Amino acid sequence: MKRIEKCLEGCGQDIALLLRAATIAALEAGGIIREMYENPHQIRLKGAIDLVTEADIASEKAILAILAQRFPGSIVLAEESSSDYENIPAGPVWIVDPLDGTTNFAHGFPYFCVSIAYSVDKVSQVGVIYCPILDELFCAWQGGGAWLNGQRINVSGRDSLIESLVATGFPYDIQDNLAQVMSQLHRVLPAVRDVRRAGAAALDLAYVACGRLDGFWEINLKPWDTAAGQLLVEEAGGTVTDFKGGSWTPYVPEVLAANGHIHSLLAELI
User: At 135, is the secondary structure helix, strand, or coil?
Assistant: First the structure.
């Protein structure tokens, strides 16, 4: 927990309690995922290429138990138990992705994370993303900056597309969106240094926040993919919008995140 002490400086008691709870839950869930990583997996399909494993279920169970213990009666929007939600929750809500990058996890590709955010009226107040393989803990609270393992992080300062490394993702219903996805990639790829598609949107956003990536875009995401990452990017000095540069919340299915220099340039392309 020493890794979040600097992040906690200057915040009120309520935010501190929320951030500590999110961190404890993320670390506990990440430990479970790490222990299961090299074992045979129990895989079932939620869609043609949308997987869920025993690690998703175990991670979410641990997170929900910790949040219920520390904040009884809280509303929680979690991927495995709320995947078919119909209404946007009103008021305070925990937004949880117990394992973002399940396909990577199932195939032994070590790029996945736990993502937990606390949101009030669609605005993230606290965000934690934990990558268990690298033992990297990203955290932020509104107005408190963004942090990685106790060190302040910022978005990159690159100001030209041709010098930028950007990332994207492909939706599970790629067959229905192939033309749009490929058209965007066709425009962006020759304009930048390179494009990555690693398969965990929450971690992609964390990488924008710490400057490893200069920008990221994707369609058809859910709030648990982006709620914590949005806060990290914005608190690190970046910008998060829809594809047209308009206002955005985690309930908008398309997202464009980048440092302040190339954001508008990327928006023109995609």
Answer: coil
User: Sheet of 123-131: strands edge to edge?
Assistant: 76-78, 92-100, 113-120, 123-131, 136-141, 146-148, 151-153
The answer to whether residues 104 and 41 touch, using CB atoms and an 8 Å cutoff, is: no
Q: Where are the domains of the chain?
A: 2-153, 161-269
The answer to whether the beta carbons of residues 168 and 185 sit under 8 Å apart is yes
Half-sphere exposure of 252 (CA within 13 A, CB side): 19
Domain 2-153: CATH class, spelled out: alpha beta
CB 101 within 8 A of CB 188: no
Sign of CA dihedral 204, 205, 211, 217: positive
Task: Give residue-wise pLDDT tens across range 188-227.
Answer: 999 999 999 999 999 999 999 999 999 999 999 999 999 9
Distance in angstroms (rounded) separating the CA atoms of residues 212 and 81: 32
| CATH annotation of 161-269 | 3.40.190.80
CA–CA separation, 136 and 126 (whole Å): 17
Tell me the pTM: 0.95
Distance CA(188)–CA(197), nearest Å, equals 13
